[in-house]
Design brief:
The chain is α+β, with helices and mostly antiparallel strands. Helix content is 17%, strand content 38%. The chain has three helices and eleven strands. The strands form three sheets. Strands 1-2-3-10-5-8 form a six-stranded mixed β-sheet. A three-stranded antiparallel β-sheet has the order 7-6-9, with no helix packed on it. The chain is globular, with a radius of gyration of 15 Å.
């Protein structure tokens, strides 16, 4: 099952209807994440996505290469982003919502983990491209793999419980 819709064209917009479609599709996704890609191809130097994430979605802590940056901009709901050191200790956290912080930018290989605090969160992500997952996403070895359902659920619930 594809977990993304590419919006094609010389200009791209997202409507409320598109956001509602995103909310519907995320409930069917095995990862509990679904996205609209606003960039035209994986080779683009700027990758932009509008992402829906459900509150029980596990996104393994990861970083990106030193030369890249990543930004999150909240659209709807609440997103917690945990920042870790190399040993897995949380060294900072940022809540993105309509009342506190709206935008977060991370630079220089920051190890992070986005967590939905609302039933469904919608956010805009921008990251340096081109996108080649094996080169762009560096998963940590101290957190469970996403395909380890039991361990990842335990890890998510453990870190999440400290911030709710």
């Amino acid at each position: 099952m594809s977990q993304a819709i590419f919006k094609r064209g010389d200009f791209v917009s997202l409507s409320i209807e598109d956001i509602n479609t995103l909310k519907e599709e995320v409930t069917k996704s095995p990862t509990k994440r679904y996205r609209y890609c606003l960039h035209q191809a994986h080779q683009d130097t700027i990758q932009e996505m509008v992402i829906a994430m459900m509150e029980d979605s596990y996104c393994r802590p990861h970083s990106h290469p030193q030369a890249s940056s990543e930004s999150y901009h909240i659209i709807e709901g609440e997103l917690l982003v945990l920042i870790f050191n190399n040993k897995g200790k949380v060294i900072d956290s940022v809540r993105l919502n309509s009342r506190e912080n709206l935008i977060l930018r991370m630079n220089n290989g920051t190890i992070h983990m986005p967590i939905a605090l609302s039933e469904i969160v919608i956010y805009h992500e921008t990251i340096s491209g081109p996108f080649e997952k094996d080169l762009m996403v560096h998963y940590v070895d101290w957190a469970p793999r996403e395909d380890d359902i039991e361990e990842s659920k335990l890890f998510l619930n453990q870190v999440k419980s400290q911030y709710e």
